[in-house]
Amino acid sequence: METITGTAAGVPFTALPPSEAVDGPAPLVVTWHMLSAPRTDAAFAAALPMAGVPAWRVHLGMPMCGARMVDGRVDAVLELARQDALLAFLAPFIRQAAEEFPAALAALREQLPVDDGPVGVLGASLGGAVALRVLTTHRIPVRAVALVNPAVRIRSAVGLVEGLAGRPYRWTAEAHQVAGELDFVARVGELDARPPLLLVSGERDDPALRTDAAALVDALREGHPRPDEVELVTVPDLPHALADEPGLAPAPQRPTTRAVDEILTRWFRRRLAA
After folding, report:
1. Whether the model pTM is above 0.85
2. Could you say which DSSP state residue 213 is in?
3. How is the chain split into domains, by residue range?
4. 65-68 contacts, C-beta under 8 A, 24 or more apart
5. Domain 4-273: assigned CATH number
6. pLDDT in tens, the chain (274 residues)
7. Cα–Cα–Cα angle for 223, 272, 229, nearest 5°?
8. DSSP letter assigned to residue 68
9. What are the strands, taking DSSP E only, across 55-141?
10. Can you tell me the distance from the alpha carbon of 154 to that of 175, in angstroms, rounded to the nearest whole number?
11. Which DSSP letter does residue 57 get?
């Protein structure tokens, strides 16, 4: 399988071609990786290649990750987390990744033989929040959404990273406002057109994230014209991270991550064929 690397409107990417011959331009699935391992587009492509999907899988690099790391080190990112876990770290990552997506998508369509129809999207951990934010902007038609151990309520993610500062997070009025903006359970009614959604939750993921994931699925199914198109799958023994540390370079799949890859592959094949 030939891997293509490059940049699209300044966003680094790792692209994998369709698993089988496609007549004409192929569908496109775009992903956003975790800030846990795997924390670069190349590492995420190795962890979840979805090799059996007859579409281009383009793994975008998150801000300040991979090729966009300051001096090739994670220190600058960690310093932001210590400064303010939400306002300087989590929220800016989500906002920038979502805001730069339309231009990156347009550039990808100029560089790769992909169709101009609705795209599939996949986000893991904080990348899941990016995928959900894209759905609330209503700027990009989305065909199907998959989330893996996603951060669907940013307030829960703050609790996971506040330890980097060595002190409890100080909630200000601004922080509460931003947490509401990035609570996609509360904003479920704003999600674009309710495309089919798969949420993969690791049995060993953080309990708060698992609770939020189940709440999102319940909220999406409520009043949904096709509730069976909202699926929740739990993967036994799967922790939050999908790869071993440091998670910067491509690495062999963990057995639990291979199970996730197989679930995603079957689901995207089915949804792209629908």
Report:
1. yes
2. H
3. 4-273
4. 65/33, 65/35, 65/39, 65/40, 65/41, 66/12, 66/39, 66/40, 66/41, 66/42, 66/248, 67/7, 67/12, 67/40, 68/12
5. 3.40.50.1820
6. 589 999 999 999 999 999 777 778 999 999 999 999 999 999 999 999 999 999 999 999 999 888 888 666 677 778 888 889 999 999 999 999 999 999 999 999 999 999 999 999 999 999 999 999 999 999 999 999 999 999 999 999 998 888 777 788 999 999 999 999 999 999 998 886 689 999 999 999 999 999 999 999 999 999 788 899 999 999 999 999 999 999 999 999 999 999 999 999 999 999 998 7
7. 20
8. G
9. 56-60, 119-124
10. 10
11. E
Q: Strand 11-16 vs strand 4-8: parallel, antiparallel, or unpaired?
A: antiparallel
Tokens of 128: 């899941």
Residues 6+ apart with CB under 8 A from 170: none
Rounded CA-CA distance 240/160 in Å is 11
Helices (H), 171-254: 173-181, 207-221
* Residue 138 φ then ψ, to 5°: 60, 25
Query: Which two structure tokens, joined as six digits, stand for 271?
Result: 């949804």
Give the chain's count of helices (H) and strands (E). Answer: 9, 8
* Cα 138 from Cα 34, distance rounded (Å): 23
Long-range contacts of 76-82 (CB under 8 A, 24+ apart): 77/35, 78/164, 81/161, 81/164, 81/165, 82/164, 82/165, 82/166
Q: How far is CA 163 from the centre of its chain?
A: 23
